[in-house]
Backbone:
């Protein structure tokens, strides 16, 4: 069964550094998403992406965040200058879209900012 | 704004006993509703979903959920739990439009006693 994959599984970085989290969505899906879960808190929506542009973003998704689908298979989340409060589990999801709004999640990347 | 409440943070159940996890949502129209499960160190796995039609939906691993519009609820049930059901369970609500975000509840952690 096709799955969403994410790399790396864990990343440790220094405050102020840039990180790129990578995701490979399910191949025939049209919609892509990033969510995050700070330890002990709810899973929160960050951004959705369709047809090579952002379709919706939350107030969390400020100028330090960006998303890209660079090559038709990968979907990346870049955090330009990490802060301590960016430490969280980041989940990528994809969905077929038309006729089916289900979102299928990857295993997550645990980001720790020191 | 949409919101989801899972009133029970933790539930402990004996193996073989029945399980019911509560989920209440707030949403202006008929929502799409989902249950996901997260085992330790794993991502979010889709258990089941409700879009329309029969209000009792069947999912994987022997789970079912019932949509009750009058109570704004979507409770998850399993008649007989197995030790492998120990995990965290998340209810989520989304809009019918493709690409829209999911809003998650805070999760219910299920512990299974032998």
Residues:
């Amino acid at each position: 069964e096709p799955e969403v994959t994410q790399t790396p599984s864990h990343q440790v970085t220094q405050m102020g550094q840039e990180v790129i989290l990578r995701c490979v969505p399910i191949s025939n899906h049209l919609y892509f998403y990033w969510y995050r879960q700070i330890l002990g808190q709810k899973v929160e929506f960050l951004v959705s992406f369709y047809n090579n542009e952002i379709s919706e973003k939350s107030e969390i998704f400020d100028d330090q965040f960006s998303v890209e689908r660079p090559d038709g298979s990968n979907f990346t989340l870049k955090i330009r200058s990490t802060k301590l409060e960016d430490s969280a589990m980041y989940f990528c999801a994809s969905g077929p879209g038309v006729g089916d709004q289900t979102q299928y999640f990857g295993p997550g990347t645990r980001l720790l900012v020191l | 704004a949409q919101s989801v409440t899972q009133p029970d943070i933790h539930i402990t159940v004996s193996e073989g006993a029945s399980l019911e996890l509560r989920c209440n949502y707030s949403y202006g129209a008929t929502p799409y509703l989902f249950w996901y499960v997260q085992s330790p160190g794993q991502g979010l796995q889709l258990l089941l979903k409700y879009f329309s039609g029969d209000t009792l939906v069947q999912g994987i691993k022997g789970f079912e959920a019932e949509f009750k519009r009058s109570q704004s609820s979507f409770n998850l049930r399993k008649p007989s739990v197995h030790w492998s059901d120990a995990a965290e369970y998340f209810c989520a609500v989304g809009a019918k439009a493709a690409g829209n975000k999911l809003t998650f509840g805070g999760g219910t952690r299920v512990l299974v006693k032998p």
User: Anything to note?
Assistant: Chain A touches chain B at residues 4, 6, 30-31, 33, 35, 41-45, 48, 50, 55-56, 58, 91, 93, 95, 97-98, 101-108 (CB under 8 Å). Chain A has a mean pLDDT of 94.
